Amino acid sequence: MEDEWKIARFLQMELEHEGFTTIIETNGRRALDRIIQETFDLILLDIMLPEMTGIEICRRVRDISEIPIIMITAKSTIEDTVAGLDIGADDYLTKPFAIQELLARIRATLRKNVSKRQIADEGKLIVKNLILFPNRYEAQVGGQPVELTKKEYGLLEYLIRNKHIVLEREHILQEVWGYEYTGNTNVVDVYVRYLRSKLDEQFEEKYIHTVRGVGYVVKD
């Protein structure tokens, strides 16, 4: 483990010399917790970590995030390479490697990720300081992420795509819940309340307006 720490520290020093801000985490489970709780631009992920392998970390991260991941390993078998790439790693590097090669891979991966985000952001929907990213199913208010369920997101996206248009509850129900839905239209009111609690009340800004006796409308 001491040798692995020395390698990690050497990489950290080289990366910071190139202008990157870095942190080191030597425990797999703690690494996953930090990835989930903190914000990073890229992850260098060793496969051999205690408590949780890099492969498992990559798989779990890909369930919730598209953050770029470069796998690093002492193993060079085709099976390991395929496993890492199949679960969503962006690139794969086998030890030993030259620091120049790692830096080139990092720069290439970051450029590719910027391009992907630009493409995803082209179709973004905006109302006041609320932004939806439909290609990523993400919502932000003033740059702050808003956690929405799939149905909450679907309702909000439909309302925003039709902003300034008063939408009847029955029409919303058909478009968001589907024609096969046989429940009460009150479900629309319930989900509008959910959205208002996460948006209007949380950020003290009114996004969804009620048109009494008719339905709802989103206004700038």
From TrEMBL:
<keyword id="KW-0238">DNA-binding</keyword>
<feature type="modified residue" description="4-aspartylphosphate">
    <location>
        <position position="46"/>
    </location>
</feature>
<keyword id="KW-0805">Transcription regulation</keyword>
<feature type="domain" description="Response regulatory">
    <location>
        <begin position="1"/>
        <end position="110"/>
    </location>
</feature>
<dbReference type="InterPro" id="IPR011006">
    <property type="entry name" value="CheY-like_superfamily"/>
</dbReference>
<protein>
    <submittedName>
        <fullName>Response regulator transcription factor</fullName>
    </submittedName>
</protein>
<dbReference type="Pfam" id="PF00072">
    <property type="entry name" value="Response_reg"/>
</dbReference>
<keyword id="KW-0902">Two-component regulatory system</keyword>
<dbReference type="InterPro" id="IPR039420">
    <property type="entry name" value="WalR-like"/>
</dbReference>
<dbReference type="InterPro" id="IPR036388">
    <property type="entry name" value="WH-like_DNA-bd_sf"/>
</dbReference>
<dbReference type="InterPro" id="IPR001867">
    <property type="entry name" value="OmpR/PhoB-type_DNA-bd"/>
</dbReference>
<keyword id="KW-0804">Transcription</keyword>
<dbReference type="Pfam" id="PF00486">
    <property type="entry name" value="Trans_reg_C"/>
</dbReference>
<feature type="domain" description="OmpR/PhoB-type">
    <location>
        <begin position="122"/>
        <end position="220"/>
    </location>
</feature>
<feature type="DNA-binding region" description="OmpR/PhoB-type">
    <location>
        <begin position="122"/>
        <end position="220"/>
    </location>
</feature>
<dbReference type="InterPro" id="IPR001789">
    <property type="entry name" value="Sig_transdc_resp-reg_receiver"/>
</dbReference>
<keyword id="KW-0597">Phosphoprotein</keyword>
